[in-house]
Design a protein that fits this description.
The protein has about 450 residues and is an alpha/beta fold. Helices cover about 55% and strands about 10% of the residues. It contains 17 helices and ten strands.
Length: about 450
């Protein structure tokens, strides 16, 4: 960049700054002197400093040349700037690697500067560096192969950023690209996720991006990955819960249709009551659930994998069938004891509610047991479970509500069967979770 300045005597001066090689070229430095000066540049670059060359000159007779190259410049020296990385960056990059996320640094700085900064930041494989000159001499297929094990690109011009993004995507990578300048816009647009700086970023960069960082902090990207994995897990668990809990509802509602001699268990009001528990759990409790243990220590999922595939459907259906079997066991046992239809309905429906509560507790986390889930800081879950338990107690205790739900009071001791059935379901689910964690220790990493 060149500027023309005028002093108090009307004399025009010209000053320029830029890449060291470019400034030395403008000053017409001899090759021998250039080698000597560039050795000083390398020395500064190895310290991790960003270097600018500075030169000055005069404008004779107020006549401006067509190009800045035609000024008569006098070399003044180099400026070394230290731009220290933020203290949280090494830990953030460490988390990226443990999560299977590759981090690449693309810079216009000297390779030595980039190497030093990469080392400070904790980049893997920071010894091998590709420069913009190297990229010019690489074919598309060669770059695709090289980029698999190179983490630092130095002396890169803006259009080469787009070339790097395309090579990564050609290798099947899901690419997130950060940038702040106008020249970053094409690469930001080409990336799967363009991330621009909200503080120092240009309007063009922000318009080209999918996400805008309000704090311009790299660690915010890592937190976004963590948050994304939590949301993905919670959506999967919520869908699994929906399938599991509706299987016993469907089964109990259809049972009297196939076997008319059996007393009707679920009526519309009972199903509405169940949905008043199910809906808030799915939309609030699962949404508020914190991330799984070791969520950032597992590899990324295959982007081609179905969000909720046959395996998850089968597992959720199996859990639902187990819950159905438990409620039916309580249902038939109550019939065998000689209870009235209203008493059977009250006992079996209570077992369904208790089973539902235990199903929620065991489904909310794949890596923590139900007791840990119950006592963790998920206020919405506690409120929903408290309201559900209180309402269930009132339905059994208050005569008006009993009549409304077609229940009859069998005595509290007869509800031990419902509680026992619920605990048996919880025990089976927690044992399955325990075995899964033992067989796949990677699911739970402290």
């Amino acid at each position: 960049m060149t500027r023309v300045l005028e002093d108090e005597n009307g004399q025009l001066y010209v000053g320029t700054k830029g890449a060291p090689e470019a400034i030395l070229e403008l000053c017409h430095i001899s090759d021998e002197e250039k080698i000597h000066l560039l050795s000083k540049v390398k020395m500064l670059a190895k310290r991790g400093q960003r270097i600018l060359g500075v030169a000055k000159g005069k404008v004779e007779n107020r006549q401006f040349p067509v190009s800045q190259k035609d000024f008569s410049f006098e070399f003044m020296g180099f400026l070394g700037f230290e731009d220290p990385i933020r203290p949280e960056v090494p830990e953030a990059i460490k988390q990226c690697y443990s999560a299977g996320t590759k981090v690449i640094m693309i810079t216009g700085d000297y390779p030595e500067t980039a190497k030093n900064i990469g080392k400070q930041a904790g980049l893997n494989e920071h010894d091998e560096i590709l420069t913009g000159h190297d990229l010019k001499n690489l074919s598309e297929s060669e770059l695709k192969e090289k980029i698999k094990h190179v983490n630092i690109f130095a002396r890169i011009i803006p259009e080469q950023k787009l070339q790097i993004i395309k090579a990564l995507k050609a290798n099947g990578e899901v690419v997130a690209m950060t940038g702040d300048g106008v020249n970053d816009a094409p690469a930001l647009k080409a990336a799967d996720i363009g991330i621009s700086m909200g503080g120092k970023g240009t309007d063009v960069a922000r318009e080209s991006s999918s996400l805008v960082l309000l704090d311009d902090n790299f660690s915010s990207i890592v937190m976004a990955i963590k948050s994304g994995r939590r949301i993905f897990d919670n959506l999967q668990k919520a869908m699994g819960y929906i399938i599991a809990i509706h299987i016993p509802i469907i089964g109990l509602a259809l049972l009297p249709a196939f076997f008319p001699a059996l007393p009707i268990l679920l009526m519309p009001l009972h199903i509405v009551f169940m949905e008043l528990i199910i809906d808030p759990v799915c939309s609030i409790a699962f949404e508020s659930e914190k991330e799984e243990i070791g969520v950032m220590k597992r590899p990324p999922r295959d982007p081609n994998m179905a969000f909720f595939g046959l395996k998850q459907i089968f597992k959720s259906s199996l859990v639902g069938l187990i819950l159905l079997a438990m409620v039916l066991s309580v249902y038939f046992f109550s019939m065998q004891e000689g209870h009235t239809e209203g008493e059977i309905r009250a006992i079996a429906f209570t077992s369904l509610i208790i089973g539902n509560i235990f199903l929620i507790l065991t489904t909310l986390s794949k890596t923590r047991n139900a007791i840990d889930v119950l006592f963790e800081d998920n206020i919405s879950l506690k409120i929903i479970l408290f309201v559900a338990s209180t309402m269930m107690f009132l339905l059994i205790s208050v005569p008006y509500l009993r009549e409304l739900f077609s229940f009859e009071y069998p005595g509290y001791k007869h509800f031990y069967l419902a509680i026992g059935g619920g605990f048996s379901l919880l025990f089976l689910m927690e044992m399955y979770k325990y075995v899964q964690l033992r067989l796949n220790p990677g699911m739970k990493v402290n």
